[in-house]
């Protein structure tokens, strides 16, 4: 038996984040999360669905994204206007700091939301693009774990590209 | 094996056997290659007053040879020690004006932080054994023995200074003051218990820096000491930071400092002659400081999601990202899916040769599907053959503007490739800008690519001429980019017109569709400018009057946001060929 409530006429699912916060989402939103859709289709969405890899902060964002996309797509507006609307929404939605972006990206991967995954990946790629190594390390807080020798070797490789 | 002035009777008396000859090993291929010439030159110049002794400067750089064990014993029994100190009665003590003794004996052992590595790692780089006595410069005040031994450095870094009464031909006292300071500083820092390993290298680095500078000074190539000092200062800062942090990070920091040190040496040796080397050493330096900072943060495992983004990066950024850290490096190298579609254009296009392209493409491990080389002037037909031979899944080939490729070469390569039944064969080809394409070639290509020329002619997206997209992109569904120009009937790239009145809606209005020779187009928006006003820019590009006005407007008031044209006739300049 799923967690759907008959009161609203709409199926509602409960998603539980890693830190125990429970979100209530409509079916139109939930099915965008491929992981959950499989559960719904298999009628395995028990009282609530535990999402162990996503924190409440990120899950809230993900749900916001899915909600907006679901509403825009079913809003009855013409395709081009909907596209424009989604584009502006996506641009604003991606206007977050890198750490949230990374979390969103891995959440989208885990929850299997293709459009969000691609959006976050593209945004991340545009952040990395044309940056120096040092800038990338700084931006994403990555440690240089090469030994001197390894670093030399890796710098030697394709050195032509950096002349 | 070493610069050995042991014939001087004073030396055995002052230097213990252990330290008489202690190899300084530097893991740096550059050093091994560059040093012999330069140093030899420097010293022999400086030695001009005593040519007879020049041969006794016996400098051996172990090139590719790996010297794992210390040569202490063998060299301690150096036969030179057994020889008379002045066999030819040349009165060395007076002829040598500047030989003053050992400036330093450095024993530098990497075991401290190479513990985890296999010893064979030494084989990866050129071992370098060097002992030299910095005989030309000395100062009596520097009678100080630095002996720093720490838990990270089983082998000590030892510095011996011998005062001498000899004449100074080179006045290096200032440098020695600095060195002294560095040494002292190091001692102070050493008091802080964790920093031992790092600091001993810090010291070493200073010494090396000075040595190199000495060489330069002697070879009269000019001094770059100011920049060195600057470097020293910054590293000092990094070290100080870490000291404050008070963590145990000797190993990591030590490595980075070593990197710094190598960068230093390389630059100094190459000297003023090579700009490239200079900048590369600065690059390394940048890395060093950054690393030091990151060490302090005690974080730094990259987020897994970052690697997801790699598939959206171009070749240049992938190559850049693999230098960031180990896990990125292994991801970029090891994931053939990242290399399934290789697109090379500016700025890499000028640098890509056949060999590096083959190397790059090999990362796809035979899975390459789309290869796009935009204006790569160094790629030859043979390079193309090698790529095709190794990548049976390639279906899209784009080589526009690759001027060294010939149409015959391309045709032959494609014939050989597409005749193989096991491969899908090239389905899409871009050869815009390749010279000498005849109708025969075109027909052969048509057969090879297997498309129907009549069917495809009009069912495609319009291709507009503009600064960033002279060539038809790979993702266009046309099988081949060139076609017969409706006006001159030559096989060329044919552009559509973005101007409102000229859009190709149906076959009847083909009026404004031709190659750039027949219809001159604006470099910005791509519209035809045959019968309207236009301007020629400094780069000999033609701009239609609308775009020119826009440009002027933009230049006049950079703070004013330029309105995009309302009629849709003008397009934003697009510099991205691969979208």
Can you characterise this structure?
The complex is a heterodimer of chains A (about 160) and B (about 575). Chain A is mainly alpha-helical. Chain A has helices spanning about 25-30, 35-40, 55-75, 80-95, 100-110, 115-130, 135-140, 150-155; strands at about 10-15, 20-25, 50. Chain A has a three-stranded mixed β-sheet with strand order 2-1-3. In chain A, a hairpin with a 5-residue loop joins strand 1 and strand 2. In chain A, helix 3 (about 55-75) packs antiparallel against helix 4, helix 3 (about 55-75) packs across helix 5 and helix 5 (about 100-110) runs antiparallel to helix 6. Chain A is globular and about 60 Å long. Chain B is an alpha/beta fold and about 575 residues long. Chain B folds into four domains: about 10-295, no CATH class; about 300-335; about 340-445; about 450-579, no CATH class. In chain B, the strands form five sheets. Chain B has a four-stranded parallel β-sheet, with no helix packed on it. Chain B has a two-stranded antiparallel sheet with strand order 1-2. A two-stranded antiparallel ribbon of chain B has the order 3-4. The model of chain B is unreliable at about 1-75, about 95-300 and about 560-579 (pLDDT under 50). Chains A and B meet through helix 5, helix 6, helix 7 and helix 8 of A and helix 12, helix 13, helix 14, helix 15 and helix 16 of B. Chain B: This is F-box SKIP14-like. Chain B: It holds the Pfam family F-box-like. Chain B: InterPro entries: F-box-like_dom_sf, F-box_dom, F-box_LRR-repeat, LRR_dom_sf.
